[in-house]
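Our example copied in:
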Amino acid sequence: MPDALFSHPRVARVYDPLDPDRSDLDTYVDLVREFGVDAVLDVGCGTGTLACRLAAQGVEVLGVDPAGASVTVARAKTGAERVEWVVGTVEDVAARPDQRGRYDLATMSANVAQVFLGDEEWLATLGSIRTCLRPGGRLAFETRVPADRAWERWTKEASHQVVDVEGEGPVEDWVQVTAVDGKLVTFDSPTIFRADGERIDSTTTLRFRGRDDLLSSLARAGFAGSEVRDLPYAPGRGWLVVAQAPPES
C-alpha cells in the first residue's frame, strides 16, 4: 500500500506546493531528447508533473501509480488529457497485450526505484518494465549513492518548513529518519494543516542498493546492457542508471 504522503487525498493535493522545484525532472527530459524517444512509460508517476511535461512536448505517455489520490491530482493538471493514467502497478500495465513492446523509455524518478525493498519485488518490477519496452528500449531511474549516507541529513532541523498553500493556509512538514537497518532506511514525514490542526503521518522505507547490486539485478531481469552515470542534479550523491532491453525480444 502506498505511503500516506502519496495516498491520502489531502496530502496529495499539497504535495506539489510543498515541493515546487522539480528541476530534477530535467534529467529525464534530456534523456528523451538524447535517445529520440516517442513513447514513455512513467512508473510511479505520482502527481504527474513529468508525464504532463513530456506529453506537452508531443511524447506519448502512460503514467502508472498505485496511489489513487496522487493520480487524481495528476488528472486535474493542464494537459493531463494527453496522458493515459493508470491507478495500479507496472505489473498491471504489462498484463495488457496492447502495452507489450510499446515504449522507447521507462522512467522511475525521485524515490521510486528505492521503494521496492525485497529482491523478488524488485525483479518482478524490472521484468514487467522490460515487457513493456520495445526491443532496444531503455529504462532510466535514479537512486542515491549509499556511501553518501543521505539519511544522516534527513532530520527535522534540516527539513522543517511551513508553506502557505492556496485553499489550505499554512501547511507544516518535515522528514525525520527513525531507523537504519542495513540497506533499509525508514523515515517519518508528517503533514500538519495548521488551519484546523489535522496531522497526517506517513512512514516510508527505502532500500539503498549498491552499484554491483543494481547491475546484477538488471542483468537477472534480462536487460542486455546497463550503465551507471552520475546523477546530473546531485553529482556524487546520486546515480542515474540507464539499462537497455535486448535488441530482439
